[in-house]
């Protein structure tokens, strides 16, 4: 039998811990005025997953702690997204107009466009829930989508690390927060006997975290070669301009 105080402490940790993981990442970006190395797709995954999880809660009514966690995470990611956009590198697809994604998804030039997309996403989910919310099958699928999307959280960062051959710009504190947080929540889900979706997806997410740890050990966190080349090109352009 788990003591009441320990259960309360665990619930508080689950609610506020994951959003706080990104505080140091946000501070680092603001301090350097550069979001290079941190994938904004992380914000996309967390926003879409946690918005969907809120609707899942309306149909399943799991622990209120997990609902609060989603709300806090949405607020945290909205702030982090704004910081990333404000401090995006000069080589970002928005700045050079070279997005390869359909409709330049999640590579839009202004913060307002992200807000408009999220508002539309919430509206669509609300309409679907009003129509199908009484169906247990729909609620189950909604939960699988919410947790399934969230479990892919480390994948964009893993891909970004591989492309850069470096973890430059991705804070070690964020990585450790991912590993520690995902390990904690996996244990929490089993102890609290949370819905199956939470257990499956947390295990998958934790496994990707360990892959990124391997990348950290293998690649290190030095400034990537592509960034160095870009800086050299800028310097050469300035020299030519002066001549």
UniProtKB/TrEMBL annotation:
The keyword Transmembrane applies. GO terms for cellular component: cytosol; endosome; membrane; trans-Golgi network. The chain crosses the membrane at residues 66-85, 114-132, 138-156. Pfam families: PQ-loop. It is a multi-pass membrane protein. The keyword Calcium does not apply. One of its GO terms (biological process) is retrograde transport, endosome to Golgi. It is found in: Membrane. PANTHER family: PQ-LOOP REPEAT-CONTAINING PROTEIN 1, PQ-LOOP REPEAT-CONTAINING PROTEIN 1-LIKE PROTEIN. This is PQ-loop-domain-containing protein. It comes from Daedalea quercina L-15889.
